[in-house]
Amino acid sequence: NNKNIATPSRTKQILKKYGLTMKKSLGQNFLVEPGILTKMLAAGEIDKDTVVIEIGPGIGALTERLAQEAKQVIAFEVDRRLEPILKNELAEYDNIEVIFQDILEANLPELFADRFEPTDRIVVAANLPYYITTPIIMNFIEANLPVDAYVMMMQKEVAERMTASPGSKNYGSLTVAIDYYTEAEISFIVPRTVFVPQPNVDSAVLKLKRREVPKVTVENEAFYFRLTRGSFQHRRKTLWNNLMGIYGKTDEAKEALRLGLEAVGIEGSRRAETLAIEEFAALANEFYQSDV
Ligand code: SAM
Question: Where is S-adenosyl-L-methionine annotated to bind (predicted)?
């Protein structure tokens, strides 16, 4: 009865034993291919010095493997129905703690202050519920917690947006935000066939390595993120038209915009998707200083 929850037969057996039906509304697609877990653990460089925060353990497929390889696993699961399953099926591990709470409502700074030693290497690992992938990741990285790396399974298209290069159609304000805080790379692509039930999309495992300091230096982060989001507001519009939409209601504001763009040498006729993160930072700092 033990080892490898992540197989088709064992998963089927557990679902039957507890009469569990998966909830699509919670993004419940369970992994049934142990090889994928091995690759996730390798991507996260999980070892006995690593403490892992897992989001959404489900019936424990990834949790089990993490418990074997890591020092400790703290998992957040919103679905209380999974409590008896996780309790019984993972009973042999004494280094797992499951907190039944919505990860978006968790007090992360408090968790970090209470639970972790300064010497712990912390990794966040998850096969994410796809419908809230972006808020979960942004919550973590914006809180600037001492997480070394994130290893997250998500919809392939979202992973592509998070790792896009300037000039490509997937490049947007999300890419710029991720690149500001982390070094992001797609570790590997995951076919839909390794889940029960099968989702309608393929997945990818994304690795985010937290930067010690953000990639670019900005005078004011809130201003910088407002500017990048605003620049991508209407993707088909030029940078000038999008900026005018945010700042340029008056003639003075338009003149300040024109001067600001000129000062940093960026043509207003370009589209936001062609701007590198360094150019967004230069623009934000220029506008912030000149009170645009
Ligand atoms: N880790 C398991 C696996 O790989 O087989 C399950 C992955 S399943 C894609 C996502 C899991 O996240 C489900 O167990 C679901 O109940 C849980 N979940 C959904 N929303 C959540 C939230 N806001 N906070 C914590 N867990 C959540």
Answer: 29, 31, 56, 77, 102, 127
pLDDT at position 1 is 43
> Per the annotation, does 117 bind a ligand?
no
pLDDT tens by residue, 170-180: 999 999 999 99
Contacts of 225-230 with CB under 8 Å at 24 or more apart are 225/173, 225/177, 227/280, 227/283, 227/284, 227/287, 228/173, 228/176, 228/177, 228/272, 228/280, 228/284, 229/173
Residue with tokens 């340029």: 248
How do beta strands 72-76 and 50-55 pair? parallel
ipTM value > 0.95:
yes
Q: What percentage of residues in the chain have a pLDDT greater than 70?
A: 99
> What contacts 180, CB < 8 A, 6 or more positions away?
214, 215, 216, 277
Whether the bond between 197 and the residue before it is cis, its omega within 30 degrees of 0, is: yes
Question: Which helix (H) or strand (E) element contains residue 51?
Answer: strand 50-55
Spatial separation of the C-alpha atoms in residues 35 and 75, rounded to whole Å = 21
88 labeled binding residue: no
The DSSP result for 89-115, as a single string, is: HTTT-SSEEEE-S-GGGS-HHHHHHHH
What pTM was computed for the model? 0.94
CA of 128 to the centre of ligand 1 (A): 6
Residue 285 CA to ligand 1 centre (angstroms): 40
Are the beta carbons of 155 and 127 closer than 8 angstroms? no
Tokens 């690149």 -> residue: 179
Three-state SS sequence of 71-83: CEEEEECCCHHHH
- In the 8-state DSSP scheme, what is residue 46? -
Top mutation candidate among 12, 29, 55 for ligand 1, by most atoms within 8 Å of CB: 55
**Angle, CA of 256, 262 and 263, to the nearest 5°:** 85
